[in-house]
Amino acid sequence: MLKKLLFATLISMPFIVSAQENTLPPIPMREHIVYYEKFYHIKAGLSKQQVIINAMQWFKEAFPNQPVAALSKSEQPSAVNGTGLFKVNTTAGNYYWLRFKVSMIPGDGVLTFRIYNVYEKPIEKGITNEFSKIEYRWWDYRNGHPWSADDKPLFNGLDSGVNALSISLEKKIGKLQAPRFRALALYSTNVEADHVDFAYDAIKFYNKLAAKKGFVIDTTSNWEKLNDDNLKNYQLVIWLNEFPHNEAERRSFEKFMGSGGAWLGFHVSGYNDKDTHWPWFVDFMGGAVFYNNNWPPLPAKMIVDDNKHPVTKDLPKTYTAPINEWYGWKPNPRDNKDVKVLVTLATSNYPLGKKDVIREGDIPVVWTNTKYKMLYMNMGHGDMNLTSVVQNKMFEDAILWLGKK
Ligand code: ZN
Predict the structure, then answer these.
(1) Distance in Å, CA 263 to ligand 1 centroid
(2) Backbone φ, ψ for residue 384 (5° rounding)
(3) Residue 16: pLDDT over 60
(4) Does domain 25-177 have CATH number 3.30.70.2860?
(5) What spacing in Å lies between the alpha carbon of 69 and ligand 1's midpoint?
(6) CB 3.0 to 4.6 Å from 112: which of 105, 140, 162, 261, for a disulfide?
(7) How far is the CA of 346 from the centre of ligand 1 (A)?
(8) What count of other Cβ atoms lies within 10 Å of the Cβ of residue 33?
(9) How far is ligand 1, taken at its centre, from the CA of residue 399, in Å?
């Protein structure tokens, strides 16, 4: 049987571009660049400071003559950053230098290890070339257009080199572990400037949290990534400032949510009106349809409906949220028995706004439709949303709750 299959594969090979893909080393990418990220469960008894010391020591042993520094933001060092370098022998006396950034960030029981900004420098038949970004070569190779016979050993060498490094680091720090969860954050840059500002702030915020807590967050402005195949890699999808662009993306998202995926949506990502024509999404939002908003954006007092829920457990009973444009909804999602409202706009804010004024009504701000693993947060307009230490705890708790298996 096996032989038969093999034969069939051989016969059809010239017609299958993916035949070569089977032999591709599993080099990971993020936002179009080669990007390795691994997590280590920090050995019991190792303090953050000791992790930094061990990481520095590991680096110096792995790359004796390479620059490395322990970064410190406050009194305590927060990360180790260095430039790694190793040699890969390819074909007949040719070899390559691979140069890359190495970063090690200790978090809560987790060390995040990253290798990125990889450059390659060929030494072919004794001739030295310049360092250039490995992505150029990798792009062509994985699309079936190798530059030379050196490509295959080069990329295999990169992958096995990084794996060897990560195994030796394991001895210094603790066990390698799978990320807690993987999230895909989608955003757009051609939307309202205030919504783009929020997306960038949120990406920064969640990247930092990901390193601290040991989860992966991939970010993309390419909404076509919202497809069945790609979504298999993720437990959580985040919409930072927009929503799917076409029917195919909508269908893939529905499927993802229907099979136990999680969603975190901010501000305009939950927007829908009579022109949206996506009844599934209205139902998903708990029946909420955009009704009104305040303008200009303003800070507002929040009432926390539930201080025991994992998302709002760290919030006080009331607090003032930073400047945001607040949306009202009709129908009100609170009228849906499956909806659990976690935060509400306090009526003491009314009248809220100048050009557009919210004068009355019960306005839920954060809620979950308990039929799904989803959370909607109305925050997400402008560059102030992540400036409140109090509210930021909810942004943290929200993603950790949704990412929980
Ligand atoms: Zn807005």
Answers:
(1) 19
(2) -110, -10
(3) no
(4) no
(5) 41
(6) 105
(7) 19
(8) 14
(9) 21
Distance 34 CA to ligand 1 centre (A): 34
Residue 404 tokens, joined: 């929980």
What predicted TM-score, i.e. pTM, was given to this entire model? 0.88
Give residue 267 CA to ligand 1 midpoint distance, Å: 7
The domain covering 182-403 belongs, at the CATH homologous superfamily level, to Class I glutamine amidotransferase (GATase) domain (3.40.50.880)
Please give the distance, rounded to the nearest whole angstrom, from the Cα atom of residue 372 to the centre of ligand 1.
25
Which parts of 256-338 are beta strand (E)?
262-266, 290-293, 298-304, 318-324, 327-329
Which of 93, 95, 102 has its CA nearest to residue 162? 102
- Give CA separation, 9 vs 135, 142, 202, in Å: 29, 19, 46
Q: How far apart are the first and last CA of the chain?
A: 39
- Is it the case that residue 1 has pLDDT exceeding 50? no
Query: From ligand 1's centre to the CA of 241, what distance in Å?
Result: 9
Residue ranges covered by each domain of the chain: 25-177, 182-403
For residue 272, how far is its CA from the centre of ligand 1 (angstroms)? 13
- Gap between the Cα atoms of 183 and 235, Å rounded: 6
240-257-304 Cα angle (round to 5): 55
Confidence (pLDDT) at 73: 67
2, burial (CB in 10 Å: exposed 0-12, middle 13-18, buried 19+): exposed
Q: How far apart are CA 380 and CA 215, in angstroms?
A: 22
